[in-house]
Amino acid sequence: MSSTFAIEAHDLRKRYGDSVALAGIDLSVATGSVCGLLGPNGAGKTTAVRILTTLSRPNGGTARVAGFDVLESPREVRRRIGLAAQDATVDGLLSGLENLTMIGELHHLGRAIARRRGEELLEQFALAEAGRKLAKEYSGGMRRRLDLAATLVAGPEVLFLDEPTTGLDPRGRNELWAVLDTLVDEGTTVLLTTQYLEEAERLADEIVVVDHGRVIARGDARHLKRQVGGDQLLIVPVNPDDLVPVAAIVERVVGVRATIDRPTRRVMAPAAAGAAAIASVATELVTAGIDVEDLGLHQPTLDDVFMTLTGTPAATDGNASGASAVPGASAAPAAEEVLQ
Amino acid sequence: MTTEMIPNTAASQTTKTQAPTTPVELGPPGDRRSSALADMWVVARRGLLHMRREPEVLADATIQPVMFVLLFAYVFGGAISVPGGGSYREFLIGGIFAQTIVFGGTFGVAMAIAADRNNGAMDRFRSLPMARSAVLGGHALANLLKALLPMAFMSVCGLIVGWRIHTDIWHAAAAYGLLILFAFAMIWIGVLLGSSLATPQAVQGVAFVAIFPLTFVASTFVPTSTLPGVLKTFAEWNPVSSLSGALRTLFGNPGAKAPVGAPWSLLHPVLYTVIASAVIIAVAAPIAIRQFQRSITD
Known about the structure:
- The structure holds 2 protein chains of 2 kinds.
- Chain A has helices spanning 45-52, 74-79, 96-106, 111-124, 140-152, 170-185, 197-203, 221-226, 243-254, 275-288, 302-310, 319-325; strands at 5-16, 19-30, 34-38, 60-65, 68-69, 81-84, 158-162, 189-194, 206-211, 214-219, 232-237, 259-261, 266-270, 292-298, 337-338.
- In chain A, strand 1 (5-16) and strand 2 form a beta hairpin.
- In chain A, the strands form 3 sheets. Chain A has a 6-stranded mixed β-sheet, with helices on both faces.
- Chain A has 2 domains: 5-225, 3-Layer(aba) Sandwich (Rossmann fold), CATH 3.40.50; 229-338.
- Chain A starts with a strand and ends with a strand.
- In chain A, helix 3 (96-106) crosses helix 4 (111-124) and helix 9 (243-254) crosses helix 10 (275-288).
- Chain A is an alpha/beta fold.
- Chain B is mostly helical.
- Chain B has one domain (36-295).
- Chain B is 68% helix and 0% strand.
- In chain B, helix 4 packs antiparallel against helix 6 (134-161) and helix 4 (88-118) packs across helix 10 (239-251).
- Classes of the chains: A alpha/beta, B mainly alpha.
């Protein structure tokens, strides 16, 4: 319990029939820190959370949460964790207060304390007014907040949030992020899963990127971004026909290889020379009479990281709209064309 | 809508409200005392709240038996004669008691468990440090208590259409006790259904296709002597028949006396019903519990 790691998992494996959900995952999350488990749908994020929260038994490997082994002492683990599953599992036929009181009672706080704790949390999550209304009448954002409040009833040491902002509008997401900030300030260890790169960067101290049941990278956002090679020079010509001439200018002036991304009408190149490169490229573009819409330095996003690590965009099919709805998250380049 | 908050107040609210009120003292997790019975009661209370908040799920325990009483007492009743004579309406009530308990006992708990398996509630419960048996026990308890509702409802309804208890209070108490015992047996069939079928819709389907007819091929509405060959044998040994017969016997209603040459089950309906209930519980409960545990773990 006084361990420096609130979550320690070694070589976790899980199979469902023939399909491998986890192919051996190691995790160590320092007490009081926030770990973001990042990956596309089907990467194994939820499976990992289910094992760590004692809902699912691994086929191999070991895990300790809050100092207790998930297989040997599941009940001790459950006393010390809070879990917000992917779909908010609040009980629609109970009021907000009844939901929280019930969970407090099942944590054996005693009915009176459970109720007072419920009222306290409703207040904290701006649900006090709706506390006596049935949860099925709540808006999506309110349900999420109630769900999060429910995980906090017994003062958990470790909080598991499985895609906490999925299905929320940008406002609801901002609200939830703000609440999480407060929790983390209070010292709760948090493991959250997300498909939103922006969210992992915003909330997590350490990001663990998973894909096909394996960890493919870990580190803080800065470290991961360095893996794609730092800042990029970015030029967006007004006319798509100018893409090739622009790339040629960049290669000549800066002396590095430039990349054309046609769908987004961008020319990109590593910008080791920094601001000086921008100035000389700008001069050359004016001389050549090429109009540009945008010219500047582009910081790689975690999308770029994901693209580099897995060769596929982080947001696949149905999630594409979700990912791009995150403010500031740029779409991963769809097709790259390397200029020789 | 009026309770919707403006952006980012969640955080400011948190910091604001924490200062003035003293936070609730929760104590260390290791010190919290628990008991399986208390956990079970929490889950049962939730189940009872669900029933109150969604009264349409109580239809099988309220409107449906009344509908059957009216249908058979006034529509079909005139064409059915009770062996040994007496009022068909008085004969009918014992059968509808039995039918209601079979249907309500299996259906309610099956629906509740299937719903919980589909809406994430099971995962929520399983992530809590509650007793492992409490979820199932709570559902069973809530539905056993629910069974008291149609018993009261049916009694009043019966009195209105002319049904009477002709014996003494002890026989009447034994009749109600037998109903509760049978309801308890039926609940395990319901748990088995709720744990085996994927959705509440499937439960509904099976209930209507399998359980409903089971309550008809019995002496529920008509004396078994009127049924042809195989059906007759089935009806004679169907516990729903013996329960109906036992209730008629204990309430002193017409049609209680089994005809000469009737099988043992009908000659000793009370004893046979008790034995049948015990057998159903002994066989179905362990299977149901195992099926339930399997349905919620992966």
